[in-house]
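Cross-posted from the bioinformatics board.
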Amino acid sequence: MKRTAKFLIPLVLFLIAVGFLFKGLFLDPHEVPSPLVGKPAPAFTAPLLSEPSKRFNTADMKGKVWLLNVWASWCVACREEHPALMEMAKISEIATYGLDYKDTDAEAQAVIDANGNPYKEIMTDADGKIGIDYGVYGVPETYVIDKLGIIRYKQIGPITEQAFFSKILPLVKALQT
Amino acid sequence: MIPEIGHFSLILAFCFAIVQGTLPLIGVWQHKPMLANVAVPAARLQFLFIAIAFISLDYSFYVDDFSVLYVASTSNSQLPIMYKLAAIWGGHEGSMLLWVSMLGLWTMAVTIYAEALPQTFKIRLIAVMGMVSIGFLAFVIFTSNPFERLIPAALDGRDLNPLLQDPGMVFHPPVLYMGYVGFSVAFAFAIAALLDGKLDITWARWTRPWTTVAWVFLTLGIAFGSKWAYYELGWGGWWFWDAVENASFMPWLVGTALIHSLAVTEKRDAFKVWTVLLSISAFSLSLLGTFLVRSGVLTSVHAFATDPRRGVFILLYLVVVIGGALLLFAWRAPKVGLGEKFDVVSRESMLLANNVVLVAAAGSVLLGTMYPLLMDALGAGKISVGPPYFDAVFVAIMAPGLFLMGLGPLAKWKKASLPEIGARLKVAAVISVISSVLVPFIMGKMSLMVVVGVFLAFWVGSTSLILLANRVKSRSAATPNLVDNLKGIPLAFYGMFIAHLGIGVFILGVTLVKGYESEQDLRMEINDVAKIGNLNFTFEGTQTIKGPNYESQQGTFTVTKNGKAVAVLHPEKRFYPVQGSVMTEADISPGVIKDLYVSLGEPLEKGAWSVRIYIKPFVQWIWAGAILMALGGFCALADKRYRARNKKLSQGSKEGEQEAHEAFAS
């Protein structure tokens, strides 16, 4: 009996590995928790896409709960996300601001003209310096920032219906009260 | 129409795989030869239809049929024809079809070259291959159909990932998959033998050449991949311990252990249970690699498909194939017996140590690769395991193994004497110690890593040469003529000799490039000169050139040494408009002593660029070593023992014994 048990070791090890692999399938390795969550959102001023002479300033956002959505015209996933943002714009609690990341104004404007504008304002970050401050490593990314200017949540990749209704919307509502 | 023919062929192949995987086993079990004899024709028809499917996909790429989703997503009308070939396996669906095609090819080869095997054994073997095929064909058909239509058709395709638009990508995947999938034959041999209940010398003898062929392909495939990473990624690295690389490296390590363990089983009728377990493990790791790469459970620079449905499917498949095999192993292996006894100091124990080292190394790579997943699954947070872990652990495990590698071949079977081995190794020890001091002295910098690395490289090389010299000496009485003497030594011996020499060359390359590479990141304006060692790199500026499907900024760097021109390098920064991606094409002037490597970073103001210049001493030796290893494998395959495939087994084994003694008598 003991002799046979020894020969079962490989099978047992394998089954343990399978257990982990199965669990792993439902985890997202790309989802890296941002070290910025819980920290103040980096302050910046940036020209507006609509009127480059005017500047957006994060200081003006104090007291508001807002979403910062990093996007670009060259980003395919952003186009997939666009309809979702348009839907979100219809919800009164949601104020989405766009940061046009490493893009040209003309191309960004063309996308907005073609697909509609879901943003309260669009700021431009042509050289990507603001993106660096925010630790942007894949576009689109969305930050939820509270009244005190603290980042409360970071969505990497397109906002999915599930992420919006289970995380973002409840969070925004809670932060506003 | 053609894609539908392809799709339909794939379904037919699936049906034949089911026939091939089930009926023959029932036939053997119930003693119904009619059913059993279905195996070979079913396997061949399966291959035929997979081939039709594969050619259909090729055709769709050839004619730019963008109504096929897979073609539209990985190809483009402007894509050069050679890269359309690479595009066939440049995406998930196509590479899985390639996997299945390779399996079909191996099965076909088995039906042709396994004529002399006992009938029931051969039928079981082919049936097991069929079972492996069922799962993968189902995977392709149900979750990754490359023939899925896109209606309405795309006007043009989304183009192949520019990283993969490289000649290396035409060869790397098929060769690598040949190796990966080739271990399925050794796996099937092990399963058939377990079903048979007979694990003997003949079994090992028949498994050996198949394992060696797969190993040769895997070696070359990994080497191609490493070379591609070296010149295409523009970072000058040749190995990144990336999950995908590890996925191919683990089967290689275990496959290497298997080759050695099979030798012991064949020669000495020992290690039988261990050899069976390795046969199962090598292919299991190939499958695990496929799972890791294809399911997206791990992040990787090779970010491919991520689809949990596919992941669940492959995992289920792993459970059935590997779990089933290990269950069979637990049930049947205890009856096999341990085989011949051997002394602590003997070639057997040296080879056992070699096996332990290789398996431990594979285990450490597996642990490092899976660790982030384990931690995440246990809720212990997100971590990543990088090169520092792998370099430290892997080297620490392999170094003693490489030392033993010098001893092993010099030890006698069954019982060897330490003083005798010691006497033979005196010269090797002296050569290695002197080199390990001399080489760093010549290169101008001493470090522990370099001393140990150079010592091991020369140790492995010089012990191999001593082994050859001893061999020649022992035969010199009978054949005094040196040429005849050398000619008379079996090719299998030369195979081992060349492969071991390859390891030495490889270690030397790795050690010297790690110890003495230099890297500079510079901002260079036009006509700036960068001085590195005694070389002057002059930046002559950039010009815009137009490729077939990209636009490129091509820089010109002239390299001079003491005023004399050494090389002119043209690194490029390419823009591929279809995917909107920018690619760095490094330019390399390769050399035996060193590579000069220049890549363009970002354009800065006024025609200046950030530039990366590397000097990579002896880096080509890394791949030269790998090619020598593969060449050694080829040599061993060419040995006449393995060509005598039409001889009946019974007489073959007796003769084999004779030749085995000849081949390995030291």
